[in-house]
């Protein structure tokens, strides 16, 4: 009887530890994956701001005055967010911005597919031959949004 | 007395909770502000250091976009396009994707989808008369595939114009169209 109780307690502690460490591993993995995605997405756009500006313009959603400013600042925002996600700096703010950004990207792409605009995504590359936006683009961004939403949940809901 | 104390403690705790919440919120707002300002400074800062910086505000209107460095515009109105078509003095090139081309295109037009230009250009190039006029088009006024293709073909040395009204304007004008199955529709 005594032995049984001891074993049982040991199991409980073990399960708790495993669950916590699993959560920690998943949290860090989500942060690093999303961080690398943001950094990978930013570098081509930072190198070719002119080509990216054309893509931003092709989305036909922003007034002309804001196109170049967006094309210059957005890739840097992605790069900084990627670095923050990997290093752990400014995490709460970064997580909120990444949720909002990814949500906006999905809405914008969906809207342009819906109105039949045949445009390049400009998500990861600024080369003109890039495949046009499709439901696959939305599914991929949806996956990133899920990761980002998990980070939001981890930071703001589960530890509230 | 105990009641008063516990009430005071509760109020204190509530105040602390609210204070922490407010502090957290302002800390998060500050973080977001830092992210955006660093990005803004980095974006504008690196741009000014470039050999050919991007202007912060640029004219993105379609006429301005189709004006070449020497001041000539590549924009071509529907009326002029019809004249060229009827005189048989221009080759029309469809910049939309192949599926849309198959569904319907300007009669006699060639397909060179902008998204596959690198693979398809060598296939289409021999059919283009180097001395003749090339007119590119895509869906309508809002699409820019024809612009991109026009600049590409111009760089390749062709004489190019862009029919800015595109396929939509051509259909509205009831000009000759065909689908790839060969069913001519002189609408």
Secondary structure elements and pairings:
The complex is a heterodimer of chains A (160) and B (187).
Chain A: H1 2-47, H2 49-58, H3 64-87, H4 91-114, H5 135-157
Helix pairs in contact in A: 1-3, 1-5, 2-3, 4-5
Chain B: H1 2-49, H2 62-65, E1 75-76, H3 78-86, E2 90-94, H4 98-103, E3 105-106, E4 110-111, H5 117-124, E5 133-137, H6 145-155, E6 159-163, H7 166-172, E7 177-178, E8 184-185
Parallel strand pairs in B: 1-6, 2-4, 2-5, 5-6
Antiparallel strand pairs in B: 3-7, 7-8
What's the gist of this structure?
The complex is a heterodimer of chains A (160) and B (187). Chain A is mainly α and 160 residues long.
Order of the strands making up the biggest sheet of chain B = 1-6-5-2-4
Number of strands of chain A: 0
Task: Label the structural class of chain A.
Answer: mainly alpha
- Helix fraction of chain B, binned, reads 40-55%
Mean pLDDT figure of chain A: 87
- Helix content, binned percent of chain A: over 70%
SSE run of chain A? HHHHH
Count of individual helical segments of chain A: 5
Textual characterization of the structure:
The complex is a heterodimer of chains A (160) and B (187). By secondary structure, chain A is mainly alpha-helical. Chain A has one domain. Helix content of chain A is 79%, strand content 0%. Chain A is built from 5 helices and no strands. The mean pLDDT of chain A is 87. Chain B is 50% helix and 13% strand. Chain B contains 7 helices and 8 strands, in the order H-H-E-H-E-H-E-E-H-E-H-E-H-E-E. A 5-stranded parallel beta sheet of chain B has the order 1-6-5-2-4. Chain B has a 3-stranded antiparallel beta sheet with strand order 3-7-8. Chain B starts with a helix and ends with a strand.
